[in-house]
Amino acid sequence: MLTGRRFRVEFTGEQTAFAERIGAACRAVWNTGLEQRREYRRRGAWMNYQPQARELAEAKTEHPWLRDVPGHCLQQTLMDLDRACREHGTFRVRWRSGRRWSPSFRFPEGNKMAVEKLNRRHSRIKLPKLGWVKLRMSRPLTGDIIRSATLTREGRHWFISVLVDDGRLTPEAHPAPGTAAGVDRGVVAAIATSDGALIDRAFTTAGERRRVVALQRTLSRSAKGSANRDRARAALAAIRARERRRRLDFCAQAAHQLAAANSVVVIEDLKTKQMTKSAKGTLEAPGRNVRAKSGLNRAILAKGWHQFALALGSAARYTGTAVVVVPAAYTSQRCSVCKEVDPKSRESQAVFRCIHCSHTEHADVNAAKNILAAGLAVTACEDQPRPAGRARSPKQEPAGNREELLLQPTIAAPAA
């Protein structure tokens, strides 16, 4: 199956300058193509990839700076633009700013790349026009078929993401059949499971948080375009990058542990993008509790709810785990014992005390048990919990009291 491998590259001075030129050319092609598409849409017409690719070939004969960079990277940029416009709409696709956008470009032809091991820690990969690029080999690539490679700059460092086909297939059955777990995502503990486990990790230290506050203060007081502002922005981006990598590592490890131990994992269908929208409103209809809502938004994004769902789907491909998605309505207000729904039972963020049966439990664990019960009701309609990538069974027998489930849940199997 297809999977990604990410490494940090060690460019030479000439390679760094050339990679910057490639990124700048791809950004220019993106912005020019987007402006052309928007102008066509204003006239009621359409512009697609094929005519833009022909015009790109003609532009390369007139502009030497386009001929110097790999042509497949420019063509891939137009393909990405075409897909973005089809999925989101031409006027919703964003420009790529020279100051805010991190240079990134893709080499789509993996058969033109080669990997050689230099020593225990380093290898090198051959890329078109860039030549041999040294990288820190944190994971082996032996036996994997390279499909494409994407170079991205983060701060002062460049990283390469290699898309490979590792030759593995999704198992027909999970090694531990009959096991299941419900997962509730929270803002205090990132993950709470139905067996009572609270999984969490601090992604920043106390010193880093103080440093962020100081850098934000310096950034707000610096003049735009000044050297002090650039240094403060770079230092702040370095701290945010470390936080982001720790969060990705935590989500990957937690997802792997849950997928390896359970044949069925049930999560809530949370629309994180809609949940973290700003509450400021407009001048005609200003929002309420804006400060509280912004704090909640930061807490949700800091815990990586959406990233964990993506990591769980990726890990499920290798274990045969069925990922079940259920509606989130009333899972935190329903008692996992008597099934009564009452908002008064949720005493605080961490305490759930049912006012009907006096059942007391951690609120997130109680919600995880309700999530698991809803997910098991879905799998009861089928012959057996299906692994990721397998077709759904046509059998649909009634299972339990459907009125308690409020809405019919669905199963989301990650793509192999």
TrEMBL record:
Residues 383-416 are annotated as: Disordered. Residues 1-43 form the Transposase putative helix-turn-helix domain. Keywords: DNA recombination, DNA-binding, Metal-binding, Transposition, Zinc. It comes from the Bacteria. Residues 171-278 form the Probable transposase IS891/IS1136/IS1341 domain. The keyword DNA-binding applies. In the C-terminal section; belongs to the transposase 35 family. This is Transposase. The lineage of its organism: Bacteria, Bacillati, Actinomycetota, Actinomycetes, Mycobacteriales.
